[in-house]
From TrEMBL:
Keywords: Cell membrane, Lipoprotein, Membrane, Signal. SUPFAM superfamilies: Periplasmic binding protein-like I. It comes from Kumtagia ephedrae. This is ABC transporter substrate-binding protein PnrA-like domain-containing protein. Belongs to the BMP lipoprotein family. The lineage of its organism: Bacteria, Pseudomonadati, Pseudomonadota, Alphaproteobacteria, Hyphomicrobiales.
Amino acid sequence: MGVSVMKVPASIRRAASAALMSLALLTGPASADEFSAVYVMSDNLGDMGFNDNAATGFARAEKEGVRVRLLQASPTDPQLWRQNLEAVSNSGKWSVVFTGPNMHDNLAAVAPQHPEQKYVFFDDELKEPNVLSVKYAQNEGSYLAGVLAAAAATDAKTFPLSSGEPKIAVIAGMDLPVIQDFIVGFKQGAATVSPDIDVQVIFIGNFNDAQKAYDLTRTAIANGANVVYNVAGPAGLGILKGAADSKKYAIGVDSDQNGLHPDNVLASMLKQIGNSIHDSIQQIQAGKAEFGTLKVYGLANEGVGLVYNDALVPAEVKALVDAAKAKVVSGELKVETAFK
């Protein structure tokens, strides 16, 4: 069975469409007193996840008077990523240049050549005096996802699509440090509910092959997984559909994906990328951004979080997860990380 047909709720389609339309119109030269921000992408919008979450931050800034442009690019054309970054840097027309995943080597080569240009590098880190790096404590958000996954897998009465066996899975894009950070936190959270829980970890090999993600999800479920955690970017749409077609549960990622398969997606682990982008723009405008440093957004400053599907997750299970969150925020519990 294929994954070509993805039913996206009309409200999400309208919001994404409106954001894209407004951002597409924001072109042209910058005036001397106009604050401007450009995002050089290594992928496209429309993933209903990471990239679309980022777009919300730029859309908010645009409503506040910031001139914004998003430069999309094919995920299979790294030469264009570099060309776009060089073009905006050479133009001298942007107050700040944003870039993110897959752009480390490109930014490391370009930023030192333009010491007067300000850059924000999110979901990664580059130590340069004109670069503000932004990371997210995805291990903390994934810890909560693991608590929920284990609770749902082992409670067939409350979650009737589960067998009750302590078996869950992570379907991930690639074996990268940031992805391992998701996995480490997820496993730790799950183990607090069921110490001997079986956590399958399966890598797709990329972040764009939704069909392969779908097939691997079906395999994980055939091997007993009651809940699958999507950590695969655009390919994750195949994971969610694979869980739905298998009549099992899934947990979404980056954006609120609960509405994509409302009978099966228990919750989504949000990386509040849009919030961090909007916050960074405000800090730069106010002259308070600390370039050359790293800022981390976690549970304590609402950089990550879990949004529930209220129709599937009852109050007592939410209370279990929220109690785990409180321990992390207070410092009582330290979530393990893949970054040492």
